[in-house]
Fold:
Amino acid sequence: MTELTLHALIVDEDPASLRYLADALSTFQPGFQVSTATDLERAARWSEISKPDIVVAGLESFSGDELEHWSIEHAIDPLSIIGLSTGPSHQNFVRTIVHRPISLPDFLDAVHGVMTVTHRSDGTIHPRSTQTIGDPIT
Structure:
């Protein structure tokens, strides 16, 4: 029996966050091939090689609708994006947000939630409201 390999793409300006999240996925979520990028240009190159099943993105790294436009251009489902944020996010299209500092249980819960989004019998995705995990820094 062949195991399914999923591709996770982590995009963040902070190298320490990239390492922490990549290690967390590799260690606690077997079956993920993890790629990292410090900006959307590098993320675009990775997504051309292997379309990600899940994208983890530091929201502070992007201005305005930059992440949304990138996801549309590269056919990335917004429900597959986990946003990382230090406070309220203006990236309204991101459905799952994990607040910094990132706790490992919160991050893994978010990954599990994104990967278990229910699909309807007609192939469409069951809509869900925005999910915020962890407490924002106040």
DSSP finds four helices and six strands in the chain. The first strand starts at residue 6 and ends at 11. The beta strands are 6-11, 32-37, 54-58, 81-85, 96-99, 131-133.
